Amino acid sequence: MNIQEIVKVFENKKSKPFDIENYFSVLVPIIQVKGELHLLFQVRSNRIRRQPGEISFPGGKIERDETPKEACIRETYEEMGICEEQIEIIGQLDHLLNHTNDMIYPFVGILDKVCVENIDFSKDEVEEIFTVPLQYFMDHKPEVYDMSYKVAEDNSFPFHKIKNGPVYQNRIMTYPVYFYEYEKYIIWGLTAKITRNFIRELIKSNSLK
After folding, report:
1. What does the alpha-carbon distance between residue 184 and residue 55 come to, in Å, rounded to a whole number?
2. Three-state SS string across 6-32, please?
3. Which end of the chain offers a freer environment for a tag, N or C, measured as fewer CB atoms within 10 Å?
4. How much is the pLDDT for 157?
5. CB neighbours of 185 closer than 8 A, spacing ≥ 6?
6. Distance, C-alpha 97 to centroid of its chain
7. Going by DSSP bridges, is the β-strand pair 59-61/55-56 parallel, antiparallel, or unpaired?
């Protein structure tokens, strides 16, 4: 291989995350409730395998032949029965890589002519739905706690081949976990993190006016 061949490989290559196996997309749904803006959440069914009983936004894994935006619209329909014509995607939040190496693309959407009481959500995937006033998140910062985890002891891993190997072997990694508490609901983890980022964007925009 010569230098011209190497140039040809990289000259039109677009940068993207590598070593990511799973890509997910979620919708942050804004809905009107009695003239006030709310965020719509779901409690995941206890019958599903992934995170049963936890609170989330509608969303899921991106299929091979669809865009992140298409995925969040499809998943919102499958989980909440809200069709594409009722969702106005107004923008995209910063995407994030979680601690399990999943890439998540959050979108912000306005639900048009959707009444909470009439949402026919999937009973197979969703236990219940609820809303939280947008102003609540503007007025209440999330609680934040540090979660730590340590590299698992594995005698088969060649720490002895690494300079300062014992340092890596005993390393403790820490990341923040956010919690919002509203009535009987605890919104935490990834959903709280996305909510926090969404609210921060709104507050930042207001501070610039």
Report:
1. 12
2. HHHHHCCCCCCCCCCCEEEEEEEEEEE
3. C
4. 79
5. 41, 43, 55, 130, 132
6. 9
7. unpaired
For the ranges 6-10, 64-68, 137-141, 155-159, which has the lowest average pLDDT?
A: 155-159
Which three-class secondary structure state does DSSP give residue 152? coil
Q: What is the pLDDT of residues 1-25, one digit of tens each?
A: 889 989 988 988 888 788 888 999 9
- In contact, 142 and 194? CB cutoff 8 Å: no
Closest CA to 25 of 58, 65, 64: 58
**CATH code that applies to domain 20-148+171-207:** 3.90.79.10
Phi, psi of 186, rounded to the nearest 5 degrees? -110, 110
The 10 Å CB-count burial string (b at 16+, else e) for 137-156 is beeeebeeeeeeeeeeeeee
Question: Distance (Å, rounded) from C-alpha 66 to C-alpha 11?
Answer: 26
Q: Which helix (H) or strand (E) holds 175?
A: strand 172-182
Q: Which of 17-21, 34-38, 175-179 has the lowest mean pLDDT?
A: 17-21
What contacts 102, CB < 8 A, 6 or more positions away?
20, 22, 23, 24
- Give dist(CA 80, CA 74) in Å, integer: 10
pLDDT in tens, 189-204: 999 999 999 999 999 8
Rg, the chain, Cα only: 21
Q: What pLDDT is stored for residue 207 in this prediction?
A: 58
